[in-house]
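Quick entry between incubations.
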Amino acid sequence: MTDTMTNPTAEPEYPALAACPACIATPSAVDRARAAAAEKAARIMLSVPDAHCALCIQTVESDLEKMPGVKSARLNLTLRRVSVEAEPGISAESIAKRLEKIGYPAYELDPGQLSMTETDKQGRDLLMRLGVAGFSMMNIMLLSVAVWSGATDATRDLFHMISAMIAVPTVAFSGQPFFRKAWAGVRNGRLDMDFPISLAIVLATGMSLYETFNSGHHAYFDAAVMLTFFLLAGRYLDFRTRAVARSAAQELAALEVPRAIRLTGEAEEPVAVADLRPGELVLVRPGGRIPVDGVVVAGQSELDRSLLTGETLPVFAGPDLVVTAGAVNLTGPLTLRVTAAGKDSSLHRMADLVAVAENARNKYTTLAEKAARMYSPSVHLLSFAAFAVWMWLTGGDVRFALNISAATLIITCPCALGLAVPAVVTAASGRLFRAGLLIKDGSALERLAEVDTVVFDKTGTLTRGTPEPVTLEGLSPEALAIAAALGGASSHPLAQSLAQAARAEGAIPAVLTEVAEVPGFGVQALWQGRRVRLGRAHWVGAEPLDVTAAYLGIEGQAPQSVAFADRLRDGAEEAVAAFKAQGKRVILISGDVPGAVGDLAARLGIDDWRAEALPEDKSAAINALQAQGHKVLMVGDGLNDTVALSAAHVSISPASALDAARVASDIVLLGTSLAPLPEAQRVSVRAVQRIRENFAISFGYNVIAVPIALVGLASPLIAALAMSVSSITVALNALRLK
Amino acid sequence: MDILAVLIPVSLFLGLAGLVGFWWTLKRGQYDDPEGDSQRILRGDYDDHPKP
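Done. Structure below.
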């Protein structure tokens, strides 16, 4: 892969007009790197986030199979991934382009980053154990029904024996995940949920074996296996949710491969950013992201620093300008001398700040942990107390007392507790995934439910980060025609947007000659013998405005200005309005100039806004809010937001955000619209409510069942009933989530 | 009650057959894309040109 992969817009339309020798040299380097990537790419994986229906499968697969060189394509709708088998020479990029054309934006995945095989193996392992437990449960249940209906003497003993033959190997195989975790917990000196589970399973199996050999009346093999089955079901759900989230998070990480072009003497070579050393020279092409901190040595261009600072207005870049990693180079190629790369770069310092902020957040205790903390000790105490009391009452009948104690453990065992959280989280994250939100962290759902304040970033979050002309009314038809022609000749975002808007107005591009892009300044050409220019204010000879603007100069006429405003992201208005309707405080904090931020705030009806905020200011503002007891949801996309994202109680970033921002946030918004956010918050509130209900249900069952067990009336039938009914109620309650 | 000597092995055998079947589906990767498979089964063109 080359660095162009990260910037699909950057190629292959090199501004053919740019007057620089380096531009002519660049394609060869790209081609070489691309050929190297294609050779080994026999199986190509792409992420297709928009695929969601039966028709999508058909469209994507049949279209790809028509592509020459493609052997077969298969779309996995669950993971939203297409896997393409192609002949060498077909690049992932060309497939992505083809998919983009039929309306499915696709992103290449680095197969090395996706440790799918390992996750798959774990999932299959759990599923196998679950299957074995299910098989045994059903068979033992059949035998148990006979015992419950009154089988006696030799028949009962035979049935118990057969049950034992099925149950013991099953428990030994299927119970392993619990035993292993419990053992690890004990070694670290803590008792979590797994210890009472393991104890109950082992004790129930052991007691039942003893009873079977002594022709006892009660054997709890069915209960032991059922316990294993239901708890494994909870584990598997939990695993699946996390596996889907993890693979998607890996996908996001695999999307961006940091590369740079190193200049050594005459040659250019693509290298990993990590391998760059201070003092080396790096070439950044137009459209490319600056990979390191450095100083401009040669070249002129403009830099878009919106992801770093939130400012929408591009800044001029020329020799001796100090630049930081993350800015996007717009018009001309730049040669940089690296001053800091890797660990010393500003990017890495940001990562350190993020790590500090995250430490504070990791202290969050989930509802499940709280429940486990209360539950584990009380169950052990209860069971032991039952044993002691019955020893005393019966005058030392160990067998009877152990039976009671085992029955107590089985009946209190957290079948429902084990399902209470995973079932709800699976249902909720499935719903949110369909709405286009990806939960990266298990506790994020619970934290999202507590939110009472929402902080938005401006550029790239509430807006698309792509400017569009406010109005073209001031331009005469001929000026519009010239603007359309000049704008179309440049790769600068303002120029492109102006050309598009002019064409939308019905302007036919004027015929120009000698069109040339002057990197860092603008485009110029000859029109009917007169010089026309589109670019920066002083170059065109106009008075600069205090808003983002481009200037059009026609020789012999006064220069004209076109002001630009950032386009709102889809759903931004709805999202803000819905959050306000929910009674949440909405705050806008941006690094942009007050004028632009104030305009946007007024448009969206946000009263509380702050402009020109540095990254530290943002996180400080959030910390101040949290110190007042508010729970803050931060929505942001830029590098300047990363610290704030990790400082907030919970954070969301769009998929278009920089890698660093997505890593720092808990939830990633896969679509382009912000509209699902308030809905997601509502779903999370409901989900937490369901989790609490589930805890209440399982507690309720215990309140009824425990006294029965304690007085010694619990039979295997009652244990089996209590367990299955409570588990099913809890699962059904989770499915009610709408 | 002699019938038990036949019925119990038979029921165990059937259960085991189910378990082996489950194991087979697991190995064949039939749980990798449940959502996609549920949609694929309704597609008409699949009947005419089934894919391996």
